[in-house]
Task: structure prediction
Amino acid sequence: MSTSSWRNRAINIAIAILLIAGATAVAINHFYRSSLEPRHLSKVSGAETNETSDLSATKVVRRPDFTLADIDGIKRTVSTWDGKVLVLNFWASWCQPCLREIPAFVDLQRTYGEQGLQFVGIAVDDIEPVRQFLDVIPLNYPVLVHPRDTITVAESYGNEYGILPYTVVINRNSEIVHTQLGEISFDEAEAIIKSLL
Result:
């Protein structure tokens, strides 16, 4: 086969890869954007929804209850953190965007913890990779872990697509006020948290 034939074949392969990557990006963007629509929170299974008394008639979504084991095998119930601004972060040790945002969460917990902020990491992973990660990068907030049960909890909090990372912000009244599919920046997270403290 001639050099020009190889070049043409390489160009065709590159174009096909770009088209596939573009289609994948469009699909991910569609699912990401649809998950941020207000109707997203009204679908949270197991959550109580009430109309608020104000004129905007926005829906209030109470966080679903759950119990999961922490890294030491101790069962922890979400109601443990009632009365605090609670940030649930669903992550995995193999998820690079998850790992990129964790240092911001450690900083935010350190800065605002005494004002009533509580981060809780929920690892959608096996316990050993999580232990290995925490040996290298210790966190200053609890980490709950289970390879299957955490998926059910994420779904009950509105993560229909199982995308990681996934972050849920809950106010002091145990109401879900923000969900984020994909990575969240320090500045975005801090702005949401400060408005609730």
Notes: The two ends are 68 Å apart (CA to CA). Residues 3-35 form the longest helix (33 residues).
